[in-house]
Design a protein that fits this description.
Elements lengths: L22 H14 L14 H4 L9 H21 L6 H10 L5 H6 L1
Length: 112
């Protein structure tokens, strides 16, 4: 892959979830994979212990501290995207994108 001139997983966001027991090993491996695919790994690492208990059936975090941690992760992703953008998004761009975004229904979430 390192010799390939073709972009790998172009414009396809990917998320990997791992458990705390193998946290450092998993994080290192994921970062190597991301770099091999010519991607950028968010520097903020946030393991979620017992993730199956941390969210309700609609996917909402059940703990306020977890919610804030996820918001911090989102801010880090947004910061990184601004650094890589040819033209950084404006507040108007963000507002427009937010109005055009609709949450998944329960049925759509089950399929995804």
């Amino acid at each position: 892959m390192a010799d390939s001139s073709r972009a790998q997983l172009l414009e396809e966001p990917n998320t990997w979830v791992y458990n705390r027991q193998r946290c450092s090993q998993a994080v290192n491996t994921m970062e190597f994979v991301v770099r091999a695919l010519r991607g950028w790994a968010v520097p903020l690492v946030m393991p979620i212990a017992q993730a199956w208990k941390a969210f309700d059936k609609q996917g909402t975090p059940t703990d306020a501290q977890l919610t804030e941690q996820l918001h911090a992760l989102g801010r880090e992703v947004a910061r990184g995207s601004c650094q890589f953008a040819l033209q950084p998004p404006t507040k108007a761009d963000a507002a427009k994108a937010e109005t055009e975004t609709t949450p998944l229904s329960d049925e759509e979430a089950k399929i995804a």
